[in-house]
Design a protein that fits this description.
Elements: E1 8-17, E2 20-30, E3 35-39, H1 46-54, E4 61-66, E5 69-70, H2 76-82, E6 84-86, H3 99-113, H4 124-137, H5 153-166, E7 171-175, H6 186-198, E8 203-207, H7 211-217, E9 220-225, E10 228-233, H8 235-239, H9 242-249
Parallel strand pairs: 3-8, 3-9, 6-7, 7-8
Antiparallel strand pairs: 1-2, 1-4, 4-5, 9-10
Helix pairs in contact: 3-4, 3-5, 4-5, 5-6
The structure holds adenosine-5'-triphosphate (ATP).
GO molecular function, one term: ATP hydrolysis activity
Domain ABC transporter: 8-251
Pfam families: ABC_tran (PF00005)
Length: 265
């Protein structure tokens, strides 16, 4: 049997801004159902790497593959259609409509896009059922009737994730998902991310600075430094590396220690 492609892969992915190489030959592959945290000091290239995957930026060289298909030159909407879901970038919430209607409208738009002569258009009831299924998945079903404008911030974020799922996102990307959240909203969103992985087998990429968040969620950590991938492995193994200790805990590596990765690129 042919080997299954990793759901997402970057091969020698590079972007230059003038003379500055912000992402420098990053090769990494992501298995279905995995949760990978991408870490590194400020300016390491984490958000730029995200932008290259989701399409906000186009690589100078290298390739992004989704299910084995090159998406490197595709626009953001094309990548979204293919299954890349970047969280908290949606501006198309309808604040005066209910939570359920918001999800239904996205499910409907998605169904229309996939419509062809041989497919059967889904009925309104089927779309509502689909919407409720997604809302149950993100633990927002009990708020289905509420208008979006009345939702607390944490629930609006859940709804945004629901919309990505309704759009068919296979890879969910979170760039500092707890930034700007109140203390009681943080566990809500962390719990959601955990459930997306464990209950729904989604593939999750997370840019995060907070080590406690990373420890509690990630099953793999990738470290970027000056745009390059310098470490890639299990959380405990990677966190113990001098390069990570230095960047996150302010501990300078001893001169005898070389910041080598278990699986350096
Ligand atoms: N559009 C751009 N034009 C020029 N330089 C850019 C652009 N986007 C990013 N950079 C530069 O690329 C480098 C990587 O930036 P990036 O925002 O990806 O880092 P980061 O690891 O996400 O940092 P932080 O943790 O502070 O968010 C930085 O030096 C930044 O100034």
């Amino acid at each position: 049997m042919a080997k299954e492609h990793p759901i997402l892969e970057t091969q020698d992915l590079t972007i230059r801004f003038g003379g500055h190489v912000a992402v420098d030959g990053v090769s990494a592959s992501f298995e279905r159902g995995s949760l990978t945290a991408i870490v590194g000091p400020n300016g390491a290239g984490k958000t730029t790497y995200f932008n290259l995957i989701s399409g906000q930026l186009t690589a100078t060289s290298g390739t992004v593959l989704l299910n084995g298909e090159a998406i490197t030159r595709m626009s953001v909407p094309e990548r979204t259609d293919k299954g890349i879901g970047r969280a908290f970038q949606l501006t198309n919430l309808f604040p005066t409509l209910s939570v359920r209607e918001n999800v239904r409208l996205v499910a409907q738009a998605k169904a229309r896009k996939g419509f062809d002569l041989f497919s059967v258009a889904e009925s309104h009831v089927e779309l509502l059922e689909r919407a409720d299924h997604v809302l149950a998945e993100v633990r927002l079903i009990d708020k289905a009737e509420q208008t979006v404008a009345a939702l607390p911030h944490g629930d609006q974020r859940k709804l945004e994730v629901a919309l990505l799922i309704a759009l068919g996102s296979q890879v969910l990307m979170f760039d500092e998902p707890t930034a700007g959240m109140s203390v009681d909203e943080v566990p809500v969103i962390l719990d959601l991310i955990r459930k997306l992985k464990s209950d729904m087998d989604r593939t999750i990429l997370l840019v995060e600075h907070k080590m406690d968040v990373i420890r509690s969620l990630a099953d793999r950590i990738i470290v970027l430094h000056n745009g390059a991938l310098v470490a890639d492995g299990e959380p405990a193994e990677v966190i113990a590396l001098p390069v990570v200790q230095e960047a996150y805990l302010g501990k300078a590596p001893k001169s005898s220690e070389t910041p080598e990765a278990p699986e350096a690129a």
